[in-house]
Specification:
Blueprint lengths: L23 E6 L2 E6 L10 H15 L6 E6 L3 E3 L15 H4 L7 H6 L4 E5 L2 E3 L1 H8 L2 E5 L3 E3 L10 H11 L1 H10 L2 E3 H7 L4 E3 L4 H13 L3 H15 L4 H8 L2 H11 L18
Parallel strand pairs: 2-3, 3-5, 4-6, 5-7, 6-8, 7-10
Antiparallel strand pairs: 1-2, 8-9
Helix pairs in contact: 5-6
Keywords: Fatty acid metabolism, Lipid metabolism
Function: Could possibly oxidize fatty acids using specific components.
Catalytic activity: a (3S)-3-hydroxyacyl-CoA = a (2E)-enoyl-CoA + H2O; a 4-saturated-(3S)-3-hydroxyacyl-CoA = a (3E)-enoyl-CoA + H2O
Length: 277
């Protein structure tokens, strides 16, 4: 007698509309695929499987003739806060350390998507979550959303951010965001040119879907040419430098300090704060 293995209770590679993790939902709403980050117990902190699932969602929509575009959003008052540096999650079919390479992350795949991708930013958006919003074709943002780039507090030399933000908002504002880790309001992010549109929070779902519909009505061939031109303007970040930095001592200490809710040891004793930075 052949033993039956119950696969629904165990992580497995993506298939169909399932994105490889219980913390992502994929719904079909007419011509759109909607990918929702759904891990409210951890404020949508992203596991490696969640990052990979978003990457898969882009290619899944791209290969499905029944779908015209992809919408990415979050649950509650959080869009995406970046990676789960505490190592939690019940979908650890790959660990964060082994999966931290840039090839497992969705950013370049978002930039290359032939079909339109709109980020409906419903709340807190930082770290890898902000990079997702920046790499999508459009970000439609709730007036309650906030933005932050805390990578340097974690010991991560994020050359993707330094490169892309300098192109989008200029080097002066990039230094402001990255060197201080300050929080931007939705209005400030709009004024800086970091996002496209801010709408009242309750109007976000409808507004984001309307923007996606408008994008999907444009000629796909011509749109791809324009997207390629814009992508060439943004250009490539220092991939080798960033990959090397992910395993450097500062990055390891940054992860450890975050998990232990303290200031990293590189902070002068008189400047250390209670709790994590």
């Amino acid at each position: 007698m052949t033993e039956t293995v119950e696969t629904t209770q165990h992580p497995r590679p993506p298939e169909g509309d399932w994105l490889g993790t219980k913390f992502l939902r994929f719904d079909r709403e007419g011509p759109f695929g909607v990918c929702t980050l759904d891990r409210p117990e951890a404020r949508n902190a992203m596991t490696p499987a969640m990052y990979f699932g978003i990457k898969y969602a882009v290619t899944h929509v791209g290969s499905d003739p029944d779908l015209a575009g992809l919408l990415i959003t979050g649950t509650g008052d959080v869009f995406a806060p970046g990676g789960d540096m505490g190592g939690g999650g019940g979908d650890n079919w790959m660990t964060f350390g082994r999966a931290l390479g840039m090839d497992a992350l969705p950013f370049d795949t978002l930039r290359q998507s032939a079909k339109p991708v709109v980020a409906a930013v419903n709340g807190l958006c930082q770290g890898g979550g902000l990079q997702i919003a920046l790499c999508a074709d459009m970000a439609v943002v709730s007036d309650r959303a906030t933005f932050r780039v805390p990578e340097l507090y974690r010991g991560i030399a994020d050359t993707y951010y330094s490169h892309m933000l300098a192109r989008l908002i200029g080097p002066v504002r990039t230094r402001d965001l990255m060197f201080t880790g300050r929080t931007l309001s939705a209005r400030e992010a709009l004024d800086w040119g970091m996002i496209a549109r801010v709408v009242p929070h309750d109007d976000l779902p409808a507004a984001a879907r309307e923007v996606l519909a408008q994008c999907c009505r444009t000629a796909p061939g011509a749109r791809t040419v324009i997207k390629s031109s814009l992508d060439n303007y943004i250009g490539l970040y220092d991939r080798i430098g960033m990959q090397a930095g992910l395993g450097a001592p500062e990055s390891i200490e940054g992860f450890r300090a975050f998990k232990e809710r303290r200031s990293p040891d590189w902070v002068h004793p008189e400047l250390r704060l209670d709790g994590r930075l």
